[in-house]
Amino acid sequence: MENRNLKKLLGLGLTTGLILAACGNGGDTEESSAGSEESTSTDDFSIVMVTDIGGVDDGSFNQSAWEGMQAWGEEHSKEENNGFAYIQSNEDSEFVPNLNQALNADFDLIYGIGYKLKPAMEDVASSNPDQHFVIIDDVIEADNVASVLFKDHEAAFLAGVAAASTTQTDRVGFVGGQESAVIDRFEAGFLAGVYAVNPDITVDVEYAGSFGDAAKGKQLAAAMYSNGADIIYHASGDTGNGVFTEAKDRMNANPDDQIWVIGVDRDQTDEGNYDGGNLTLTSTLKGVGQVVQDISNESMEGNFKGGEVSNFGLAEEGVDLTEGNLSEDVWTVVEDYRQQIIDGEIEVPENPADVKAE
């Protein structure tokens, strides 16, 4: 894969030590190239995202954020590399250098996409109190950082309901990326949703230890399908592409043995296309793209919400579930549970240890 970091920054006309003309809130530079000390105008306002592992083509979390940034650019007639860009992280050690790269490029607003960027962003943000940052999927207590959380467990609960209402084998699976509080929410919600429909269903749970290991995802999925699972929900970023690959390989080889994958963070219907049809049962949605677009607009208008924490669930329309290939009967069941969660009749657990089959 080409070095997308270099491509994006060169597209901005940057080399080491140079900055964008617009200075805004970014970095320690006192003046723009025009010599003005005034705040950046809305015409010059610029945003950048530093990705978690997996890149903007992961078909999931990072891609959703990038699509929101692209929508923001289209809304304001900005071209990629001239107002918005991304810097890809290929490993955790790149988080601090990439954030500093964005800082030195003098973007007005810097996004960290994923909880794994929290330590790096805390470090960089504390040293640059005049720069505005946004962390997605975690909380940083600082006046120059806006924090965004999602109630992933609520959408995952609906995925569990869909899986339990669809399975023909009474065995389903969950593949997580790296164990963390965030992925705990996905697992807990999925387990709770499955058991709410049928506590006798077996749920196989495995973690790949990475959000960027498609080969591991394929391996884990192969074992689950071989053990009788007919539906796998993944919350594993690019690793989930391996889950889809394994499912498609099996459906192409044995089209009468129906198996399914439940996608995550965005509508992953396209990832489920195979020679005989589509095997994406449904997908949990996470409004990262919309949040990126909204926060960028608010910040551009001078309403950056530094120090605040936003938390989006079903009631706030921040998470959801696609209808996908669900039957009408199953969708009716899903809708019933959705309303119960919104009405407060069901409180979805966030920790797998709190989930028990009754």
From TrEMBL:
It holds the Pfam family Bmp. Signal peptide: none annotated. It is a lipid-anchor. Keywords: Cell membrane, Lipoprotein, Membrane, Signal. The keyword Zinc does not apply. Gene3D superfamilies: 3.40.50.2300. PROSITE patterns: PROKAR_LIPOPROTEIN. It is found in: Cell membrane. The keyword Cell cycle does not apply. GO terms for cellular component: plasma membrane. Residues 47-351 form the ABC transporter substrate-binding protein PnrA-like domain. PANTHER family: ABC TRANSPORTER GUANOSINE-BINDING PROTEIN NUPN, TRANSCRIPTIONAL ACTIVATOR PROTEIN MED. Belongs to the BMP lipoprotein family. This is Nucleoside-binding protein. It comes from Desemzia incerta.
